[in-house]
Design goal:
single chain; about 350 residues; alpha/beta; Rossmann fold; Dihydrodipicolinate Reductase, domain 2; 6-stranded mixed sheet; 13 helices; 14 strands
């Protein structure tokens, strides 16, 4: 496979740090640029992020002495040095939208972890195993932006990365109503227990904007390209509750689902076992071999035990059983900063690379 030079915009934040660790020994992608806010620009990565390094593995040695560029004022310079960039900045939504479009118009493709462009009609929001065909909208986006290479592709919110993969192979039975209660780790807020001690022995029953994302984003993922835009699916009806819980990593969801045509438990388990997507078919470097794992034990999946399954890129399910109000209920788990954030971004970039979108 061809080698690509890449940049990380927002390299000092938690997701940016995760991108750095995932890309340290990547077989296709070579990190050539790290960029951050004007406050950090001009410092080495170690100077800017060393004291607030939140990963459990060390900062990549090859990146420690890289001098950070200014993510906002060095766009042309960065674009000239890389084939594409990952973006995980902490800015206001309108500022992120403008920044990512500026990179795209500078002919630097952007693979974004940010939410700003998730509902831009011609920006693909991709879970690679579920809707890889949505990257075909990039042709329309380039036409709107007036670019030859530049575009923006985004990954979906971390909260939907457990239950949407589990529901996806069941769509053949007609998903009608879905209730999902998510129990979300503190790393989803960019925190750990050192920086957020208030979360020890605590639960917060609200995460700003999360329920709207959790209810609406699956419908775009399950949507279809019509003309120059992605049109959201009209079903299922989804309602969610999103809670912050005292867990370092790993988002858990309790899911209840009704179908137009109720499948058997055996049919559901077989579909989960057999489900493969384009990343598995192409054997992309970050793709889990078994996307959905089912645990027979009543007390699994557990965040501490199962979040790192297949490098944190697999989805774990368990406790599938019939329900008194819905047809079935089950529990699922995904690693929110791997499958749900940087890992999902890297997998999306691998898909885009394999399909020639960076050439």
């Amino acid at each position: 496979m061809k080698q690509y030079n890449v940049g990380i915009i927002g390299a000092t934040g938690m997701v940016g740090q995760r991108f750095a660790t995932l890309l340290e020994n990547h077989p296709w992608f070579n990190v050539k640029v790290l960029a951050a806010s004007p406050r950090s620009a001009g410092q080495t990565y170690e100077q800017a992020a060393g004291s607030r390094w939140k990963m459990t593995v060390p900062m990549p040695a090859a990146m420690k002495d890289m001098v950070l560029l200014d993510a906002t004022s060095d766009i042309e310079k960065i674009a000239s040095m890389v084939d594409f960039c990952f973006c995980a900045v902490d800015m206001k939504k309108d500022e992120i939208k403008a920044l990512e479009e500026a990179y795209a118009k500078a002919e630097c493709p952007i693979v974004s972890n940010n939410s700003a462009h998730r509902f831009t009609p011609d920006v693909p929001m991709v879970v690679p195993e579920i809707n890889p065909d949505h990257i075909e909208i990039i042709k329309s986006q380039r036409k709107r932006l007036g670019t030859k290479r530049g575009f923006i592709a985004v990954k979906s919110n971390c909260s939907i990365q457990s239950y949407v993969p589990a529901l996806h192979p069941l769509r053949k039975f007609g998903l009608k109503n879905v209730l999902a209660c998510t129990y979300q780790a503190i790393s989803g807020a960019g925190k750990n227990f050192e920086t957020w001690p208030e979360m020890i022995d605590n639960l917060i029953p609200f995460i700003g904007g999360e329920e709207e994302k959790s209810e609406q984003e699956p419908l775009k993922v399950w949507g279809e390209i019509k003309g120059d835009e992605i049109v959201k699916a009209s079903s299922p009806s989804i309602t969610t509750q999103c809670l912050r819980v005292p867990v370092s990593d790993g988002h858990t969801a309790a899911v209840f689902v009704s179908f137009d045509k109720k499948p058997s438990k055996e049919e559901i388990l077989q579909l989960w076992k057999d489900f493969k997507g384009v990343p598995q078919e192409l054997e992309l470097p970050s793709a889990p071999k078994q996307f959905i794992h089912y645990f027979e034990e009543d007390n699994r999946p557990q965040a501490k035990l199962d979040r790192n399954l297949e490098g944190g890129m697999a989805v774990s399910t368990g406790r599938l059983r019939e329900d008194t109000q819905y047809d079935y209920k089950f529990v699922c788990l995904s690693h929110n900063t791997l499958r749900g954030a940087a890992g999902g971004g890297v997998l999306l970039a691998e898909l885009l690379a394999a399909k020639g979108y960076f050439d």
